[in-house]
Amino acid sequence: MTSSSVAQGGNSQDRATSQSLARTPLYQMGVELKARFTSFGGWEMPIQYSSITQEHHAVRNTAGMFDISHMGKFTLQGKNLISQLEYLVPSDLSRLQPGQAQYTVLLNQQGGIIDDIIIYYQGTENTDTQQLVIIVNAATTDKDKKWLLAHLDTKVVQFQDLSQSQVLIAIQGPTATHHLQSLFKTDLSPIKAFGHLETTIWGKRAFLARTGYTGEDGFEVMVDSSIGIDLWQSLYNVGVIPCGLGCRDTLRLEAAMALYGQDIDDTTTPLEAGLGWLVHLDTKGDFIGREVLIKQKAQGMPRKLVGLQTQGRNIARHGYSVLSSDKVVGEVTSGTLSPTLGYPVALAYVPAQLGNLKQQLEVEIRGKAYPAVVVKRPFYRSNNRPTN
Questions:
Q1: Cα–Cα distances in Å, from 230 out to 33, 132, 139, 242?
Q2: What is the pLDDT of residue 66?
Q3: Helix (H) or strand (E) holding 249
Q4: Residue 259: exposed, middle, or buried by beta-carbon count in 10 A (0-12, 13-18, 19+)?
């Protein structure tokens, strides 16, 4: 997580320096819970409420909730919408059924990742008018919006940006569904991983998706800001632990989920980033960046993103150099001391020939080289996640 200037809520100097940052409708709830705030993607967001480690374990063992209202939220409706989006992503969207979603990436002409997104297909209103929801990263919301509008036929597609008007709360952990179900009349148990639906809560529309960024089971719920505070308070009242971006980062790293701007960006291809499972060259037609990916698949990649484990408690942080035979060969993109596993883990780009499992490497930490080994990803896999 690219956090900076972690601030204690309530400090007047911090408030002055954060005036240019956007705040979600749940900001005041964080202040009342004495959360520490940080600048993230142009927003002032809670980094922790109690401690990062406590919140991390709450998600792994019971349930935690995150204010992720800073994420970009788009709704699209129009003719042949799926076929239009097919040209912008490497994934085959034609197989999506109503109520299903696809994690994928927007690509530029060089095959680089503009952003990683989730497309939630809601089905058709009539024979050819399709509708869907797209959730994008906070820092890339404006960029993604411009890219989509530049490549979609806006004469037949209605595009709504709900980023400011909607609250988005992630409820994650083994007991997350139980707690959420206590507030909704709709039966949530039939919803599989990456499934979603529209329902109501307190007479207002609610969009629920069985997705998340923690490696655990759970839901992401989008509601109007007018009831978002009530939903957060109700979840808090039934025992769901408020969590900040600090533990969201350690959770997603244990699950080896990429962070845009660190592990992936517009200079990395999905093949290099270990996201080859999103690239469906054989089952779909042309798309932006296709020729680059075909060439990489045929000739091999110059580099690849790998998982690293360092010895002891020597943590490989973002930006640290990866060494082989005393030469710099790569760079760490994300790293932490895993609260669940009890040892340091990291993601790093290295030459493809040095990316095999059990490959011995080193990481330069504070001017000294420490042993590291390439290990299998994800570093942690939950037994509680539902199937697709």
A1: 15, 26, 27, 14
A2: 98
A3: helix 245-254
A4: buried
**In the chain, what are the helix, strand and coil shares in percent, each to the nearest 5?**
20, 35, 40
Exposure string for 299-325, b = 16+ CB within 10 A, e = fewer: eebebbbbbbbbeeebbbebebbbbbe
Classify burial at 275, counting beta carbons within 10 Å of its beta carbon; exposed 0-12, middle 13-18, buried 19 or more.
Answer: buried
Burial of 183 from C-beta contacts in 10 A (0-12 / 13-18 / 19+): middle
How far apart CA 54 and CA 242 sit, in angstroms, is 11
Q: What angle do CA 52, 57, 63 make, to 5 degrees?
A: 105
pLDDT of residue 128: 78
Is pLDDT at 384 greater than 90 in this prediction? no
Rounded to an integer, the average pLDDT of 351-369 is 97
Amino acid at 125: E
Among residues 56, 42, 50, the alpha carbon closest in space to that of 4 is found at 42
Q: What is the C-alpha to C-alpha distance for residues 83 and 382, in angstroms, rounded to an integer?
A: 35
Q: Which residues pair with 365 in a beta bridge?
A: 368
